[in-house]
């Protein structure tokens, strides 16, 4: 168990202002990162197809644009491994400054890439390379932002604290949609295709500077300070994680399936799908904006609820709910009624997704010991995102095309993801009422490591004395 030292205060000794500063740093940094990341997803559904992947078939252009969106998810585990190694070795704070800087500069660069009409095939290549760098940055950002909140949290409020960086996904999505709507209003019609879409990307430089200023003021987390004070950093955190925590990594990967697949169905695929059904782009974006903002309160509510009754009950209840909801949700889109479309979008963001979206981070953080927590949580989270998260809009679009516009296969894809997550979370350990760093196997592993390093001569001496 973690020993309290002068440089690692116990949870009850952490000043409230330090907790609040860490929570704000986590939330704002997460919002900025997700704004940058989701902005690409929104533009993939609206403009990147014709501008960077032109084709005689609009569906092919759309699929290529969504494929570039999905590719970043494949590289996110690599970013998670790289930056989580740094985070478990030298600290969460410095790692978060690196990831935020990389994401911000890459996003600004995306806004400056010339279109296919200007530089030909170099345009989609440059765009895709920058998207991959976004994936590397977010792969490292998520785990650090989560731990900044959870490792500062009081014992009975980890669910609530862990929900705060997760609301960054909704706030980033809302901010991105607001920026797109505003750019479309200032640069209507063809102006949006030529220059308007670039403004939200380039403007993120201001968010980058704000985020760096805030994170500079946040101290290192208590859990890492304790690990550092005791010299318990793992030399190769990924190796220790796979050796001692491979089961937890598998559980985390499976739990991520439903959270990530439904988010990108609701947030990215739905925009493209609704526009293809004849709804006005601005109306759909506004509904996603409203739903995202309402979802923030839902996230905080379910985070608090998990502190009262446990993570698994809330998470699994929400997973069952989305399994039952997904086909009616898609039917509402096909109704042709804007009011029903609005109801579907708002319910998905306000009542359904937050049940598990708010808890995925805390559930994963509670599964790993502090010396590999950054690595373990990031690896499971990013693997799940790579398998079904990024590809979800691409898979859904391909299923629609393959089945003549029938939305039922899309629903079955989501249901399959839900079943995987239910099975995975069923095997997770419930730790909502326990100390974060007091995992049952922590002391056993410490004793095992100590015995492994005890000199043979001392063992023989002890035997003679006995």
Termini separation comes to: 29 Å
Strand tally, please?
0
Return residue spans where pLDDT drops below 50 for at least 5 consecutive residues: 1-7, 446-466
β content, as a range? Answer: under 5%
CATH class: Mainly Alpha
The biggest beta sheet reads: none
- What fold name goes in the CATH topology slot? Growth Hormone, Chain: A
What number of structural domains do the residues give?
1
Shape: globular
Structural class: mainly alpha
Task: Please identify, by name, the CATH architecture.
Answer: Up-down Bundle
Order of helices and strands: HHHHHHHHHHHHHHHHHHHHHH
Keywords:
466 residues, Growth Hormone, Chain: A, globular, disordered C terminus
Topology summary:
Blueprint: H1 16-46, H2 48-52, H3 58-90, H4 92-110, H5 116-119, H6 122-150, H7 158-186, H8 190-196, H9 198-202, H10 204-216, H11 222-229, H12 237-244, H13 246-276, H14 281-309, H15 311-334, H16 338-357, H17 360-365, H18 373-389, H19 391-402, H20 408-426, H21 442-453, H22 456-465
Helix pairs in contact: 1-3, 1-4, 1-6, 1-7, 1-10, 1-13, 3-4, 3-6, 3-18, 3-19, 4-6, 4-10, 6-7, 6-18, 7-14, 13-14, 13-15, 13-16, 13-18, 13-19, 13-20, 14-15, 14-16, 15-16, 15-20
